[in-house]
Amino acid sequence: MASLLRLPSLLSPSKPLLRRRLPAARLAAPAASRGQASAAAGAAAPAAAETRGGDREGQVTPRSVDFNAWYTDVIAAAELADYGPVRGTMVIRPYGYAIWEAIQDYLNVKFKETGHSNMYFPQFIPYSFIEKEASHVEGFSPELALVTIGGGKELEEKLVVRPTSETIVNHMFTKWIQSYRDLPLMINQWANVTRWEMRTKPFIRTLEFLWQEGHTAHATLEEAEKEAMQMIDVYTKFAYEHAAIPVIPGRKSRVETFAGANRTYTIEAMMGDKKALQAGTSHNLGQNFSRAFGTQFMDENGQIEHVWQTSWAISTRFVGGIIMTHGDDAGLMLPPRIAPIQVIIVPIWKKGDEKAAVLEAVDSVQKILKEAGIRVKVDDSELRTPGWKFNHYEMKGIPVRIEIGPRDVTNKSVVVSRRDVPGKQGKEFGVSMDPSILVNHIKGRLEDIQESLLQKAITFRDSNIVDVSSYGELKEAIAEGKWARGPWSASDADELKVKEETSATIRCYPFEQPEGTKKCFMTGNPAEEVAIFAKSY
Amino acid sequence: MASLLRLPSLLSPSKPLLRRRLPAARLAAPAASRGQASAAAGAAAPAAAETRGGDREGQVTPRSVDFNAWYTDVIAAAELADYGPVRGTMVIRPYGYAIWEAIQDYLNVKFKETGHSNMYFPQFIPYSFIEKEASHVEGFSPELALVTIGGGKELEEKLVVRPTSETIVNHMFTKWIQSYRDLPLMINQWANVTRWEMRTKPFIRTLEFLWQEGHTAHATLEEAEKEAMQMIDVYTKFAYEHAAIPVIPGRKSRVETFAGANRTYTIEAMMGDKKALQAGTSHNLGQNFSRAFGTQFMDENGQIEHVWQTSWAISTRFVGGIIMTHGDDAGLMLPPRIAPIQVIIVPIWKKGDEKAAVLEAVDSVQKILKEAGIRVKVDDSELRTPGWKFNHYEMKGIPVRIEIGPRDVTNKSVVVSRRDVPGKQGKEFGVSMDPSILVNHIKGRLEDIQESLLQKAITFRDSNIVDVSSYGELKEAIAEGKWARGPWSASDADELKVKEETSATIRCYPFEQPEGTKKCFMTGNPAEEVAIFAKSY
């Protein structure tokens, strides 16, 4: 292997490449599986595997030792992504992309159900467009990638590679919208966007990322507000019910509002290191872009008005949120509803004459589960031992493992292991292969895991939010790495001071608010709302 | 309306914007529907529509008068796409995008069935990558868009906005592939690509377009060849069975082979003006990119070898192919299998007291069809007359229209019209609303239309291919706008001479070949194969 010619990376990334543990791990010495491998599994490597010598998945840095190293290790070991050749870019590998596809599949249906159509806008935007909306240009101009040469010639006007599409959307909306009959206009696009970020992190903040961006135009402010709220609700529901991430939905402070929006709604998620992740946003844009681009309509009374708009987005960042919410030292842990593979079946046999019967049973179980709509995969490779496979699919976060060995075949039963409950506790022996029993059992386990991941995340979240009534208390909570929640009505300057002194920002004014007027913990003035402060990604 | 403030386009496109007929048409005077509107439809505009005054869809230039004008008119009137603000870019509107989604839905399943996984590569490629494969850089360098500024700073190395991804794919494959166990590596991505084209045309050739690009690496030449052939077969099957386009699959000549490939397979479609459209390609890349990027593996005997590769793509250009294969003077005509809406239901009533019963029947018919898996839409808007709707949905190419008026309600029947058969001939009265009859009837009609569109296209294609046995005959055929098919074993220089003198190129050596050795129509030398020459898009 050492003689393989390897071309060096041509642009050195600002960070080291993901530690390439997997190839090494493939050749590493055997070792026991994490968790409690069944007696059969412990002993029974198929003959061919012996010749490979490999039995151990590349280990990852323990979460408690170094959360960031753990995160990038998991991404490498579970083969979710890799660094691209250009600094800050990311290649999304098939398994990571399959998680993104699961997110897309759910949201795409919801977007259509709520009346939106997909379409596609060009990614090249004339530079002058970006300058039209004052706060938009201020927010985005430091992050732009510019095309200046096309077809061998210097361009007359520089082109912006879209960092977001409000400007070009409004340019087109202005052409398409004439009358109130053309409203509401509700569209979405799945696209790549580019932001020249200085500090990058796979999935969380990359030079280029994938997202969906919804854009809508309405006849009234009320309709736009309702739409912005509806979409943050869609995101919230997705996060809770599918990703098992108990996000806190709320409104951004003025300081943190999207460049060009009147109001930004957000869902904020607590990662395993207690830092906050802004996991999705929905903006009420008011008439900011319609005024900048002259997007007008004739209302029912013949009056010309500017349209009221929204935009909203969720990106591949959400995949990072899933990793950092549920993962543990054994690797990724996927909520069943978004897991590309929900059940992995590992056949186990000692002697050659056992093989046929085991594989026949495996095949039958796979068919039964597949027909029941469960996403199931069999790994009957003879190049790997069962122990290696156990670790490998734990690393990949597959919710349920089924082992089938010769004794199981005799008993017409299988062994079922939960990814979220390590060791013996998560293991059930003698689960009947009878379709009516097996299917219900597995479906039940998948539901249990889904619910259990959510509850665990809720408990973690709630035990790390501190209610504060003074700036001192906030400082203490933030210093402990926790979120601080307290009444707030102070100035933007005070908010920036908190950021400077503690690195925490207002994540949101949560929708869920205690009743009554409180006292701002900073100024002592009356405060209508509590805000949540936290360090964030 | 004239008082609406409109911002001028900030970059003038090199071509005029699509003729904006629709907004004008909305306010145009009533006119008779194309085709034979039912008696009820002719008379019965809902009351509200009278106040709109509008009844006529924007007409398009007749196909026979100016095919190119017809094409862009249909794109505008059927709301498939619009020009973007940057020269040569295109906005794909919801209806056009829905056709692309239908293409994606079919191919995505086929790609996965044939063992490919989706993933995503960054779109920014270091300029030096493009230079690594000699013929690749020669082919693509004139068409590149280059990012030279990022985050406000001049970049040390210019970045190419991907025109195709072979180079970056190989850079990553080199990291991931070590051993024969890592092969075959078979991936696909759905992405946007950029080629700085000088002469652009919506869908057919745009600065930025959407496509899928498959990339695979194999241990042997034979496997790569088999894969390249498999994928051109997938495309061929899709074209015939779903898009009803009788493409001719074959091999490209050396001159027309992809920059960097050893062999290019293609599917060539005859458009309504008889010009050829290259509708999809599959390349056997040999070891060209693996040598340039050092993509090697250790084979079963411990030898280090370069991998053998393929790549293959279909793009939004295919949407243009669908328009230009099936459309007529009334607009778009969509094959039922890829039509976003297969059946449009238009309710018709004269008097207010008829409305409730008609809408109830419409609702019930819609439910019946939807439950049967038919993509159905109801247009019960009172802002438009039935006649307007007939034209509108003919323009949109919806395969089947169902009309339901008061008399139909009484008779428990509906009127069914085929988009592909104009006038009375395509119209059936008294089709029973009984679910068991109606569903079978509509499904049968959709199948008839699918088959009929294909047969019509085959007949058109075959009547416009001329077998030639001399250069003179070729010139004659090409001058008539037809395709010329003849034995060919002449040089690349002769091929370029044909292009120069007739504007025709070798579209392919079709897979289907007459038996025996023939005489090259250019040189008189023995020729193993016939080639097809045609003018192309």
TrEMBL record, chains A, B:
SMART domains from the UniProt entry: ProRS-C_1
One record GO biological process: prolyl-tRNA aminoacylation
The reaction(s) this protein catalyses: tRNA(Pro) + L-proline + ATP = L-prolyl-tRNA(Pro) + AMP + diphosphate
PROSITE patterns documented for this protein: AA_TRNA_LIGASE_II
GO molecular function: ATP binding; proline-tRNA ligase activity
Alphabetized UniProt keyword annotations: Aminoacyl-tRNA synthetase, ATP-binding, Ligase, Nucleotide-binding
Pfam families associated with the record: HGTP_anticodon, ProRS-C_1, tRNA-synt_2b
EC number(s) recorded for this UniProt protein: 6.1.1.15
Domain (Aminoacyl-transfer RNA synthetases class-II family profile): residue spans on this chain: 87-335
CDD domains, alphabetized: ProRS_anticodon_zinc, ProRS_core_arch_euk
GO cellular component: aminoacyl-tRNA synthetase multienzyme complex; chloroplast stroma; mitochondrion
Record InterPro entries: aa-tRNA-synt_IIb (IPR002314), aa-tRNA-synth_II (IPR006195), aa-tRNA-synth_II/BPL/LPL (IPR045864), Anticodon-bd (IPR004154), Anticodon-bd_dom_sf (IPR036621), Pro-tRNA-ligase_IIa (IPR002316), Pro-tRNA-ligase_IIa_arc-type (IPR004499), Pro-tRNA_ligase_II_C (IPR016061)
The protein's name in its UniProt record: proline--tRNA ligase
